[in-house]
Amino acid sequence: MCLAIPGEILSIDSDADTAVVAVGEVSKSVSLALVGEVAVGDYVLVHVGYALERLDPAEAEKTLALFAEMGGQAEAAP
Question: Structural domain boundaries of the chain?
């Protein structure tokens, strides 16, 4: 089973075909080799250093909110 996380594109390096993507307060450089046209501000689904596909912003925000909720529940568990 794999886990891919939505991230927002902060910057793009067209020469290297990479982007800096933010997931919450964490940012990471990822490859754009597997996606088509993307722009700063777009959300992409990220897995092991690769952007897999562009996401609808509303869907990305909903998924990130669910992850945050799950994290909060885990912290509250005894």
Answer: 5-76
Mean pLDDT estimate for the chain: 90
34, 36, 78 from 55: Cα distances, Å: 14, 12, 35
Q: What pTM, to 2 d.p., does this model score?
A: 0.84
* Burial letters 6-32, b for 16+ CB under 10 A, else e: bbbbeebeeeeebbbbeeeeeeeebeb
pLDDT value, residue 1 = 67
- CATH no., domain 5-76: 2.30.30.140
